[in-house]
Amino acid sequence: MPALPEYLTRALLESEGVPVVPGVMLTSAPATVAGFPVFLKAQIPGATSRKSAGLVRRIDSPAELGAVLPDLLSRDRCEGVLAAEALDIELELYAGVVFDAGSSSALPGGRLLFSLAGGSGIEARAGSLTEIRFPLSSPPSPGTLAASLPDAPWRASAADLLAGMARTFCRYRLLVLEANPLAVLRGDGRVLVVDCRAEFEDRAVRNGEEALFGTASARAGDSTRLERMVDAFNRSDPAGTAFFRQNRGAPAPGAVRVATNLCGGGGKMLWEMAVGGRDDIFALNESDTSGGLSAFKSYRFLRAVLAQEDADLLLFTGSGMAFQSQLNIAAAIWKALRESPCVVPVMVRFGGTDEDKARAMFERLSGSLRAPVRTYPSEVFPNAMVDSIRGFLEDAGAASPVPPSCPPGGTPAFEVAVPPGRFHVDGARCAECRERPCLGACPTHFLAWAEGCGPAKAEGQRCTGCLMCEAACLLDGSAGLFIELEMPEVE
Ligand code: SF4
Ligand code: SF4
User: Fold this and answer.
1) Does residue 292 sit in the same domain as residue 439?
2) pTM, rounded to two decimals
3) From CA 72, how far away is CA 270, in angstroms rounded?
4) What is the C-alpha separation between 305 and 180, in angstroms, rounded?
5) Which residues constitute the domain of residue 234?
6) Is residue 67 part of a domain?
7) Staple 186 to which of 90, 321, 417, 430, CB 3.0 to 4.6 Å?
8) pLDDT digits (tens, 9 = 90+) for 432-467
């Protein structure tokens, strides 16, 4: 199970309104902080026992900060240093949420764990855990949780926080979410998260190893630059599987080299059945995007898939699952085709919710895309797509010489942290836009009109990274919106 470092877990918790100890992320030295003392915590993926390894240090002065920060930043795989305020703590608690696979008498769900033995290891708190089971579709409310907590001044605050942890666990489909310790502050009795970690799904990765490429598959420790890129944005946006593994084999002479984005069982298995044993088709990569990942993440995944050298074709198949919005995925594919430096002909088989709308979008775009695209309905199985690859490539013609779209530069109008995206708004274009279709396209009402500026983020609402606003703006608005989705640099 890949683990998220503390600073990324904090971002997930904060997106659900869970209070965390105030802190800033420092990524270079020298740096300043608002006040002392602070605790510096090196952010190293998978690091355990950080205190004993010297990765957590109390700092009392600017001179000490200047001496210690460069050392922590230089540690192997350090992604930055979190400078967290020192707190006046009355009591330390423990909370965790873990995935429960269920049994013959209980459906799969979440298990919320709570203990008064905060700050301790698992042995110390094992006998004192309160456990609350809940369905993943309905995380427990603060009222329900309060009834299971001790009658203490901090009970209501702790119940709010635990409910937020359960929501975070469900929203991002995590396998483990731990806060250890939670701090009860002296004086006002507020409860907040001091340290935290999360683990997320990677079953597709383990199942995928060896499935298609046999002995030529990747082995531990030999990951490619693009695989590390996918790992990096999986950690910044963990909801939903994004599995990517490049083929280490060599194509047979004359084979068509296909870059793939396959979704879940409906896409991945059918493709593997269709190409198994054929040497005229060479899969450049294995892939699986499923579990309801955001369009932001689908876009980043497609950019990695399209960055493979020597691809002749991109092939996408939807999963057929109801919760994979094909319209959102269509927006992600369109965006990747606009913005990727590499352009190849594309075969797309949408399958799942709104697959007809997704195909209609591409039919509307026909002739304006930088790459030749052929779409298929879900009734067409991948074996028929595979059989038509050579004919499609012969008919496809050359890709358009139009250069890729780039972010407009400058400071974005606003940003979202999870899933991460920067929204650039061209106020002059928006002023001319009569219908403002971006606003109506947003399913969560995250966008609100700001007079003289254009769309802005509405307080209290959430962006799910569906890309519907940008697609609506380009299709029916005045092209005043650009969502910048960062592609991690990987050495
Ligand atoms: S649709 Fe585009 S151009 Fe029109 S208001 Fe929205 S962001 Fe601006
Ligand atoms: S602002 Fe709304 S429409 Fe745009 S990506 Fe976020 S949730 Fe989707």
Assistant:
1) no
2) 0.73
3) 48
4) 38
5) 217-396
6) yes
7) 90
8) 999 999 999 999 999 999 999 999 999 888 899 999
